[in-house]
Design brief:
The protein is mostly beta strands. Helix content is 12%, strand content 35%. A hairpin with a 4-residue loop joins β16 and β17. The longest helix has 17 residues. It starts with a helix and ends with a helix.
Length: 253
């Protein structure tokens, strides 16, 4: 039994030593950024654009295929699919335009409303960015209800098509999208600054609109006294200076 235990220990050590040092993670960021997040806010009826990444791939580790499955089945009353995109830029992966033929497939509702599939294929060796992360695509979702919407990102069931990554090393990601309303009445928008005017609330869109400077022309707004003070003018003689000028002029005649 001792010999068997030693062999098992060696196998365990070997397995740990050869495994990927860190998992590959599905992560999302607001479009055009790499500010990865697991939460986001959106106004009622508003949209949110997300870039989808597989992180931790490693610089120089090119890949030929992959996929991302989006699942928000439990949140279809509060979030809806609008669009998705993917493109190739100069032979590398990009995400700023429409789908390029041969770069992959974009399938809305593959398992009904609340699901979406992005398959990355025929890339001829897609390169991760300088951080070692691989961008998959962009998805735009729209708020449709008051409750938090949970969107999960993982490998396409029942298989994971990443090549040459190992499916067991690919871990899911999640984002919780909450509806927020910045205002319902004008008072919600008041920033307490007299000099930038009275802010108003655009209640249907839950957004605050800026005010305008309330002070008349040729005055300086004083936010401490909430008044428009006369602008000081330099270069004009005072009354006593005018008298001196007149006296000197008369004496010089």
């Amino acid at each position: 039994m001792k010999k068997l235990s030693i062999i098992c220990s060696l196998v365990t050590v070997f397995a740990i030593g050869t495994a990927h040092a860190q998992p590959y993670l599905y992560e999302v960021a607001p479009c055009g950024t790499k500010d990865f997040t697991t939460t986001a806010d959106v106004v009622p009826g508003g949209t949110i654009c997300l870039d989808i990444y597989l992180t931790g791939v490693g610089v120089g580790n090119n890949h030929n295929a992959g996929d991302a499955w989006l699942d928000f089945l439990d949140s279809v009353a509060d979030i809806a699919y609008v669009s998705a995109g993917r493109c190739m830029l100069n032979g590398s992966e990009g995400c700023t335009g429409p789908w390029t033929p041969g770069a992959g497939v974009n399938i809305p509702n593959p398992a009904g409303p609340g699901t979406h599939m992005i398959v990355v294929a025929n890339l001829g060796g897609a390169a991760p960015d300088s951080d070692g992360d691989l961008i998959l695509g962009t998805v735009t979702l729209q708020n449709t209800g008051p409750n938090d919407a949970i969107v999960n990102f993982f490998c396409t069931p029942p298989f994971c098509s990443w090549t040459p990554l190992s499916a067991v090393d690919v871990f899911p990601g999640e984002i919780v999208i909450s509806q927020v309303c910045h205002c319902t009445v004008d008072a919600d928008c008041d920033d307490g600054n007299f000099c930038n005017g009275v802010e108003t609330c655009d209640a249907p869109n839950c957004t605050c609109e800026p005010g305008t400077n309330p002070c008349p022309t040729n005055t300086t707004c004083n936010k401490d006294t909430d008044t428009g003070d006369p602008m000081s003018v330099t270069g004009i003689p005072t009354l006593s200076e005018w008298g001196l000028i007149i006296f000197m002029t008369i004496n010089s005649i």
